[in-house]
Structures are given as structure tokens and as C-alpha cells.
Design brief:
By secondary structure, the chain is α+β, with helices and mostly antiparallel strands. It is built from 6 helices and 8 strands; from the N terminus they run E-E-H-H-H-E-E-E-H-E-H-E-E-H. It has an 8-stranded mixed beta sheet with strand order 1-2-3-4-5-6-8-7, with helices on both faces. Helix 1 crosses helix 3 and helix 4 packs across helix 5.
């Protein structure tokens, strides 16, 4: 449905849930997505995924434009309609990490959320040990708003949770600075 330079961002289909489930069951991905225990997620988890997609303000699958490779998902959820705020989640298959796809899809989704969905802010949480994700979020324009110190137990140690957000006026200023 939507396209960026290298990616297609489309609606989730029934056939995608097995891939989303597999992505969540990748240890590298699961430990960066959820503060819950990192455990194999069985068939019942697919019901949770379907409910999450149905309840989301926006839930999209990311594919490459050239080959149609399934890259991951992005969603805006827990939308607070009164305050025009939504949480953002993004997960890419590890084989697509480091290619600039996260930056590309985030720029599109942030722009779309502000210009078409009339959001005022987009909020996210990221684990403090995920330096690559924090760098991408900052590159797109997200600002650190706070840190929940030692809020997540993972890999035998405590890690911080970094709270980040971007406001519509910040995004507009960034677009203006880049002549868009």
C-alpha cells in the first residue's frame, strides 16, 4: 500500500502471522521487544498477535520493494485519542539489521502518523542496552524523555528502559530543516 525508496509497507494479512510469530521466537528479537520472560512462544501466542494487530491504530508489514522479502513489522498501538499519542513498536528480521531499513520505515511512519493520522506525539520504550535502536530513533528525531533505571532483568543483569518520544512540531521543524 505504501512505498518508500526501498520498502513496501502494507497491511497485515492472515498469512503474515506465522512469520510474525517466528520473528517473536527469535531470541535476538524477543529480548529486545518485551520485558517479559524470554521463552518460546507457542501457538496460543498467535491469538495474542492477531488481537494486537486488530486493536492497533496502524499495524503494517515491511517488505523489500525489489524482491518482496518479508522484513518485519511496525505498529502504532495504545492510542490515546484525547491526547493524540500512540506507542510505536518496530521489529525487523536480524538478516535485515544494519541496512538502513529501520530509519527508512520510521521516517515514513512518523510522517504518516503526524500528517495523516493527526497524532501529536509518538512514544516508545527501548532497552538501554540496545544502542543501535537508540541511535536510529535519535536519527529520526526521537528525544529521550526519561530512564527507568534497572527496570528490566535480562541476560542475568538489570538494564534500563529508555523512554523516548517525538512531537508533531519537532517533526515539522526537522522536515523544514531538510527542505521538505
Amino acid at each position: 500500500m505504501f512505498e518508500t525508496n526501498n520498502l513496501r509497507i502494507r497491511a497485515v494479512r492472515n498469512t503474515d502471522f506465522e512469520k510474525i510469530h517466528d520473528l517473536w521466537n527469535d531470541l535476538r528479537v524477543q529480548k529486545s521487544l518485551s520485558p517479559s520472560y524470554v521463552v518460546p512462544l507457542g501457538n496460543k501466542f498467535e491469538e495474542t498477535l492477531r488481537a494486537s494487530a486488530a486493536d492497533a491504530l496502524l499495524y503494517c508489514i515491511i517488505e523489500t520493494k525489489d524482491k518482496g522479502d518479508w522484513v518485519g513489522f511496525v505498529n502504532l498501538f495504545n492510542a490515546d485519542r484525547k491526547n493524540r499519542d500512540a506507542m510505536l513498536a518496530l521489529a525487523l528480521c536480524p538478516e535485515f539489521w544494519g541496512r538502513g531499513y529501520a530509519t527508512e520505515v520510521l521516517r515514513f511512519v512518523v510522517d504518516y502518523a503526524f500528517r495523516e493520522l493527526a497524532l501529536h506525539r509518538i512514544t516508545l520504550n527501548v532497552f538501554g542496552n540496545n544502542a543501535a535502536a537508540i541511535k536510529v530513533y535519535k536519527r529520526v528525531g526521537f528525544v529521550e524523555e526519561g530512564i527507568q533505571r534497572k527496570a528490566n532483568w535480562s541476560g542475568g543483569k538489570w538494564q534500563d528502559v529508555v523512554l523516548m518520544a517525538i512531537l508533531d512540531e519537532e517533526w515539522a521543524a526537522l522536515r523544514e530543516d531538510h527542505g521538505e
